[in-house]
């Protein structure tokens, strides 16, 4: 499904983009429409992750596309956001894959890794030859990483990691895991009693990733429980540039930025489906789109899509200038996901009974967005981040 001409007539986004940004968007849209949309309903139904698309995403330049060097495309923040928008317009699971690979795992290595670590992993991850995951969240809760119980201790010249992680995207497919653990090693100076990151090849004995079953959301992607039992690593497995929670948070903010754009892709897809239905289905002798209440719903949906994308664009320009703050990222993530879910609900009402079937993408998007609303910070966490920025007082 292409972007509805009537939407473009009201919202001319292209006028605000550079030719390079439009090119990235069109390439991502083509990939989504040609490689994901024809199979996504079947994959969602069967809880199947189509691993063969990973190399294709790499060949198209989407993996770590916002990073520079090591085989990465070096695209701007807005171009990356537009790619996220188009991929999530197909399915949140595929934007999530690009986000976990590029914004979390690859960004952690690029930001905090040694030159040897970067050379070892980033080129392979950019092509999709190697897959990474980001192991931060633990079974007892994800919103308080300062309370993590996973530990890394010195053992001779190396490290031993013990603990458990949950809801770790791609872990059972990954070749390397970025694992965050609490250490107590005075030899590391002030950073020796803090959270540190480690690169853990997933073939290491003691590392076990088990896909989580029974999901009613994000069914075409993979999330796992991870067990770390006496995982032994060499001394150089530690990420030298990351000390404390600023390390994982720096990566989470990269992923949250992609969500700001991506959720608007899901929202646009729902609006397109509702618009198609409103202009194509007749009730009481006329298209349902000719009724005032239906037009009011469509207008409100378009309003929030346009506002959300314009906010994402503003934040992208700030990011390109190096001026984007965590509180601003929280504004974008909170707004985009919350409004995308409301748009999905309104679209379902226009689709009526057929809206609960897989003849339309709306219920799939709504289910996926419930997960997107939770990961990379819940609504409540982002409200508290914004509240702290407004008042100067922490309510955490």
Structural overview:
52% of the residues lie in helices and 15% in strands. The protein has 396 residues and is of the alpha+beta class. The protein has 3 domains: 5-131, Acyl-CoA dehydrogenase/oxidase, N-terminal domain (Butyryl-Coa Dehydrogenase, subunit A, domain 1); 133-237, Beta Barrel (Butyryl-CoA Dehydrogenase, subunit A, domain 2); 246-391, Butyryl-CoA Dehydrogenase, subunit A, domain 3 (Up-down Bundle). Helix 4 runs antiparallel to helix 5, helix 5 runs antiparallel to helix 7 and helix 7 (246-280) runs parallel beside helix 9 (326-351). It starts with a helix and ends in a 5-residue tail after the last helix.
| Domains, number | 3
Largest sheet: 7 strands, mixed
N- and C-termini, Cα separation: 43 Å
Number of strands: 11
- Report the portion of residues in β strands: 15-25%
Mean pLDDT: 94
Helix content: 40-55%
Q: What is the H/E order? A: HHHEEHHHEEEEEEEHEEHHHH
- Alpha-carbon Rg, integer: 21 Å
Shape: globular
Structural class by secondary-structure content = alpha+beta
Number of helices: 11
CATH class of the largest domain: Mainly Alpha
Question: Could you name the CATH homologous superfamily of the largest domain?
Answer: Butyryl-CoA Dehydrogenase, subunit A, domain 3
The CATH architecture term of the largest domain is Up-down Bundle
Q: Say what the CATH topology of the largest domain is.
A: Butyryl-CoA Dehydrogenase, subunit A, domain 3
What are the segments in which pLDDT stays under 50 over at least 5 consecutive residues?
Answer: 1-5
Catalytic activity: glutaryl-CoA + oxidized [electron-transfer flavoprotein] + 2 H(+) = (2E)-butenoyl-CoA + reduced [electron-transfer flavoprotein] + CO2
Family: Belongs to the acyl-CoA dehydrogenase family.
InterPro entries: Acyl-CoA_DH_CS, Acyl-CoA_Oxase/DH_mid-dom, Acyl-CoA_Oxase/DH_mid-dom_sf, AcylCo_DH-like_C, AcylCo_DH/oxidase_C, AcylCoA_DH/ox_N, AcylCoA_DH/ox_N_sf, AcylCoA_DH/oxidase_NM_dom_sf
Pathway: Amino-acid metabolism; tryptophan metabolism; Amino-acid metabolism; lysine degradation
